[in-house]
C-alpha cells in the first residue's frame, strides 16, 4: 500500500470463489489488479475469473509469475521428467483417501518424478460450526514433509497387508522442500523413511517422489542428501 499509494483488499479463498462478482464489479470502468502467490493459472479458480470477465466484456491482461510448479527445479530434478502433480491431503480419523498414491505409482512406473503439493488448512470451519453457520475458523494448519511421508508410509504398509508390493517403498528416493524461493529455503534428499524424520522448519512444504534418474539429477540430489549412502543402489537412465 505504501509503494502503490492504494488500498489493498485481502481476498481469501472464500472471497475469490464465492464473491467473484465483487472483484469484477468496477472492472468495466476502472483498472482492477488481482495479485496471487505463484502463477495466476496455478488454480482453476483464476480461470473462472477470466471467463467471467470475458462474458462481461471486460478486457484482461496476465502478468505471469514463478510458482512451485517450476521452482522445484532448484533441487536439480529436470522439469520435463515430472509426471502428473498430486495433492496430499490431511487425513482424519474417518477419512483417509489414497488416490494420490496411485497417481504417484503410475508416474513412477513411467519413470517420472511426482511433485506432491501438501495440504493447507486456512479459514477452515469445524463440522459443527459449519452446520450451525457460525463464522468461526480453526487455527491455520500446513502439512509438513514429515506428515506427508508418514501418510505414504502408512499406505505402503496397508498395501503390503493386502498382498501388494508397492512401486514406492521406504527406500524410494524423495526430496523435501520448504519455503522455496525464500532466503531461508531448505532442501533435503533421501529415502521416504528419512523424509518422515527430517526437520525443514516452517511452511510451506512440498515433497517430490523420484522416478528414474539421470546421473546429473543424482549428482544434484546428493548436494542435499540427508545421508549419502541413500543413493548407493539407485539406477539412472541415459538421455540421448
UniProtKB/TrEMBL annotation:
<dbReference type="GO" id="GO:0141133">
    <property type="term" value="F:diphthine methyl ester synthase activity"/>
</dbReference>
<feature type="binding site">
    <location>
        <begin position="67"/>
        <end position="68"/>
    </location>
    <ligand>
        <name>S-adenosyl-L-methionine</name>
    </ligand>
</feature>
<feature type="domain" description="Tetrapyrrole methylase">
    <location>
        <begin position="19"/>
        <end position="194"/>
    </location>
</feature>
<keyword id="KW-0949">S-adenosyl-L-methionine</keyword>
<keyword id="KW-0808">Transferase</keyword>
<protein>
    <recommendedName>
        <fullName>diphthine methyl ester synthase</fullName>
        <ecNumber>2.1.1.314</ecNumber>
    </recommendedName>
</protein>
<feature type="binding site">
    <location>
        <position position="205"/>
    </location>
    <ligand>
        <name>S-adenosyl-L-methionine</name>
    </ligand>
</feature>
<dbReference type="InterPro" id="IPR035996">
    <property type="entry name" value="4pyrrol_Methylase_sf"/>
</dbReference>
<feature type="binding site">
    <location>
        <position position="118"/>
    </location>
    <ligand>
        <name>S-adenosyl-L-methionine</name>
    </ligand>
</feature>
<dbReference type="GO" id="GO:0032259">
    <property type="term" value="P:methylation"/>
</dbReference>
<feature type="binding site">
    <location>
        <position position="39"/>
    </location>
    <ligand>
        <name>S-adenosyl-L-methionine</name>
    </ligand>
</feature>
<dbReference type="Pfam" id="PF00590">
    <property type="entry name" value="TP_methylase"/>
</dbReference>
<keyword id="KW-0489">Methyltransferase</keyword>
<dbReference type="InterPro" id="IPR014776">
    <property type="entry name" value="4pyrrole_Mease_sub2"/>
</dbReference>
<comment type="function">
    <text>S-adenosyl-L-methionine-dependent methyltransferase that catalyzes four methylations of the modified target histidine residue in translation elongation factor 2 (EF-2), to form an intermediate called diphthine methyl ester. The four successive methylation reactions represent the second step of diphthamide biosynthesis.</text>
</comment>
<dbReference type="InterPro" id="IPR004551">
    <property type="entry name" value="Dphthn_synthase"/>
</dbReference>
<feature type="binding site">
    <location>
        <position position="42"/>
    </location>
    <ligand>
        <name>S-adenosyl-L-methionine</name>
    </ligand>
</feature>
<dbReference type="GO" id="GO:0017183">
    <property type="term" value="P:protein histidyl modification to diphthamide"/>
</dbReference>
<comment type="similarity">
    <text>Belongs to the diphthine synthase family.</text>
</comment>
<dbReference type="InterPro" id="IPR014777">
    <property type="entry name" value="4pyrrole_Mease_sub1"/>
</dbReference>
<comment type="pathway">
    <text>Protein modification; peptidyl-diphthamide biosynthesis.</text>
</comment>
<dbReference type="InterPro" id="IPR000878">
    <property type="entry name" value="4pyrrol_Mease"/>
</dbReference>
<feature type="binding site">
    <location>
        <position position="180"/>
    </location>
    <ligand>
        <name>S-adenosyl-L-methionine</name>
    </ligand>
</feature>
